Amino acid sequence: MKIATWNLDHASNxxxxxxxxxxxxxxxxADIVVLTETTDKVNLSExxxxxxxxxxxxxxxKYWSTIWxxxxxxxxxxxxxxxxxxxxRIETPSGDLIVYGTxxxxxxYKGSSGKSGKxxxxxxxxxxxxNDWRAIQDKFPGIPFIVAGDFNQTRDGSKAYCSPxxxxxxxxxxxxxxxTCITEEDFGAKGKLKPxxxxxxxxxxxxxxxxISKSGIQDDGVGVWDHFTEGTYWxxxxxxYAELAxxxxx
Length: 250
Hints:
Layout: E1 2-7, H1 18-28, E2 32-38, E3 50-52, E4 63-69, E5 73-77, E6 86-92, E7 95-103, H2 120-139, E8 145-150, H3 164-176, E9 179-181, E10 208-213, E11 218-225, E12 228-229, E13 232-233, E14 239-245
Parallel strand pairs: 1-2, 7-8
Antiparallel strand pairs: 1-14, 2-4, 3-4, 5-6, 6-7, 8-10, 9-10, 11-14, 12-13
Helix pairs in contact: 2-3
């Protein structure tokens, strides 16, 4: 199977061409796609996907996260925050799979009080996410579990965008939940991402991640795609995908 995740940077035809974003998603040919910062206008049903969404943020008017699947969605699973995160049990040819899509707050989010300092809400949300992952896995034991979305932290050793405490906290929560982040590679250094001509010719350090449960899922390779082409910017995030396999449980 192939799973992909991409932050669409608020998905707007006026600044981020939705048609081009959807064409890129079509070209990736993933079985499951987790999109963040997206909108009703990004409708993958015409590409053969079914969807589960969190509650729409009325002030934002869009969705922080969505899950699109070419396989049947058995049911949606409640999350600790049903605006930020979305979770679904999916029927695959090899057996059931649970996918959790989310966006962890960026460094400048000030929280509901509007007074939180930089990275405070980011760090807090990591612990909340970890507790949610544990609760869901305890409720559905033995089912392969995948977390994907915008984590708002680089995990490739560059420290290009992160709080050191946040890196440590997420590492702890992944370990606690028997999850492996398979997108910690420095993709730019390995030539998998092109230098960004609008950003001093620097390549992007990835913050859109995919994590898999250590038992039951095999990582068969990870890839990425650029967030721009020939001067057109689809998003301010590159996308990531992973080829995965797990034993047939049917």
